[in-house]
Amino acid sequence: MPTLELALICQTLLWLLVVGLFVASNQASLFHPLTIYLGFHGVVFVLRPLLIHYLHFDTIWNYMLIAPSEEDLVKTLAVASVALVTFGLSSFWCGKTRLHFSTAEPVPFTGAQRQALVITTLLLFPLIAYSIRSLMGGGLQGEHRGGTFVLTGASGYTLEAQYMAGPLICAWMAVTRFSHKALLSVIIYVGYRSYTGWNRWTIVLFIFALCAVYAWQRRIRWLPLWSVVIAVPLFSLFLTLGANRDYFRMMLAGEVVERMEEPRSRQEEIKLKYDTQEFANFDYLCYVIKMVPARTGTYTYGSQYLQLFTEPVPRQLWADKPAGAPVSFFNLNNYGNFLGLTVSLPGDGWMSGGWLGLVVTMSVVGGILGFAHRWFWLKVQNNMAALAYLIGMAMLPQWYRDGGISISKFLFWNLIPLLLWVGVTWLCGPRLIPGQSWILAPNTSVRLRQRDLRDGGSQLPAPPRAS
Fold it and tell me: Is this model's pTM higher than 0.85 or not?
């Protein structure tokens, strides 16, 4: 048996083994970060290599201008497998907890929380509307600098502020228990995102967040049945926008949408439809492993994370802001064509330091997400805390796919509305403010008793006496 075929079989069996052990551990649920990673790994690092080998998918190789050898492919499978095991062990160990809903239904939202959500929506609506207006007015203009797309038409803050609409809609769906009236906002949002064709991943992640919120409210640990039903049209929408971002805009304008000539064979038809960039992270990872460090001569040593400090500064205030990381050891585009592609989380770890960087990156990320999972189950009865985790969790596929700091942008826009909602709720509800305090000696026992305050309660109670 050829080495590559043996490696493909081992890769598949390893994935199935991890899935089986995870399910048998009684820790598996929709809400666990390992569940999402297993889905991601299964698509891009198990299914995709099989299609490459048996259906001869080569569109991405041609785009990147490389011809990987069998050794390159086997090494890529090995790196992906080590990433899976490392992330699985780390997230499982740090996230192990008791999965239990203490009540059959979530605690109802209070009147203060409902009032605060109305105020939060009114405060953020002008920003979201302005962001939409900027995008529709041609603000999405830019240029590629060293393989990084840099906006020149408008600020990133201006264009991306509309992301806040997604978590707001999720909050309204949770507060109204997925009422039909609130469902109208979901249809409008998905329709708008489909019309613009920009960042179609926001549609997928938004629907996933809704499914997670619904499962939490219904006290179920897996995806609801209706999410499986809409998966097929959602996947079709995703592919349609990938082939033509202006598809729906052209269709509504009455323009003729050009169709490619039908391929002659079934295999060519499958290749034309599925050999695209949407799920080709295996191909991208192979490129990264092939170039780093053989061609680059060095690793990044985690320097890409320095972009966390420079990215928040608007380019209007810093005209010479570096495109990408402020400290760069190499540019992947110097060895082929990596324009517009993503390295994935395993690729990000490999670039940082080879095998060691891979293990460290996957261990740290897995540990952080594991602790977050444990925190969720401790706070599962807290409506706002649970919503924050669920909406943040829905962003994980983007992190697994991109690697690096991209997750920070998604979390920023998706958690800002929820944090604002928490603050406004505090203002709308009863607030406990310390009025007086005393410092007691150690081993002091205190007896509290209600005191009859005269003069309209203007007197302060005396300090408790030690007994």
Answer: yes
